[in-house]
């Protein structure tokens, strides 16, 4: 669950229509409107989860975060779906329901699975339903794709997605020590140790 406290405003005089913000937005909340060389960014703040990625990628300081009149809650409760179905989906995805799926928004795998069972069928819809992908996008892309693929299989269509993310075939235990140590924030060594312990328990 994430509390979205900010909205994004576009400073039109600064916008040069580079399309970077549209490509970076994890919920497809930004659309470029107008002829290609004169297009301006338009933000649907009902779909914005305050990841501020548009601000980070804008080379022209055209995106501005402002306080919302009323904060908006984003998230899907695991209690809103059948627990048997939820656990079955997590198992099929090869993920622990209690595992953290997105560190930046504190979204657990069970919440991602619940959102998918409730109808989220694309990366953008899953991000909007859970608040995941609202920060670094280094860790959450893989579990998000794995849950979506476990539920949708060949019906998952990512061709229209504009978001760049890591391939979903990456496995936690295959991340080498150098890479794990390079990102201490994500506690990858600890996550790997926990995963190995669970493997041993099943033997």
From TrEMBL:
The keyword Chaperone does not apply. GO terms for molecular function: 4 iron, 4 sulfur cluster binding; metal ion binding. Residues 6-35, 39-69 form the 4Fe-4S ferredoxin-type domain. It holds the Pfam family Fer4_7. Keywords: 4Fe-4S, Iron, Iron-sulfur, Metal-binding. SUPFAM superfamilies: 4Fe-4S ferredoxins. InterPro entries: 4Fe4S_Fe-S-bd, 4Fe4S_Fe_S_CS, Fe-S_Ferredoxin. This is 4Fe-4S dicluster domain-containing protein. It comes from Cryptosporangium aurantiacum. The lineage of its organism: Bacteria, Bacillati, Actinomycetota, Actinomycetes, Cryptosporangiales.
């Amino acid at each position: 669950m994430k509390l979205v406290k900010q909205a994004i405003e576009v400073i039109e005089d600064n916008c040069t229509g580079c399309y970077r913000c549209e490509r970076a937005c994890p919920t497809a909340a930004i659309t470029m409107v107008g002829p290609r060389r004169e297009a301006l960014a338009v933000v649907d703040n009902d779909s914005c989860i305050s990841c501020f990625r548009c601000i980070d990628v804008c080379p022209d300081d055209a995106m501005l975060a402002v306080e919302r009149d009323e904060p908006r809650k984003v998230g899907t409760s695991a209690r809103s779906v059948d627990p048997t179905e939820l656990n079955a989906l997590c198992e099929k995805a090869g993920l622990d329901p209690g595992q953290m799926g997105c560190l930046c928004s504190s979204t657990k795998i069970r919440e991602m699975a619940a959102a998918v069972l409730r109808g989220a069928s694309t990366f953008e819809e899953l991000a909007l339903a859970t608040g995941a992908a609202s920060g670094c996008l280094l860790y959450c892309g893989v579990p998000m794709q794995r849950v979506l693929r476990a539920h949708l299989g060949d019906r998952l269509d990512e061709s229209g997605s504009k978001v760049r993310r890591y391939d979903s075939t990456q496995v936690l235990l295959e991340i080498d020590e150098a890479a794990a140590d390079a990102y201490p924030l994500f506690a990858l060594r600890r996550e790997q140790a926990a995963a190995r312990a669970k493997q041993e328990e099943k033997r």
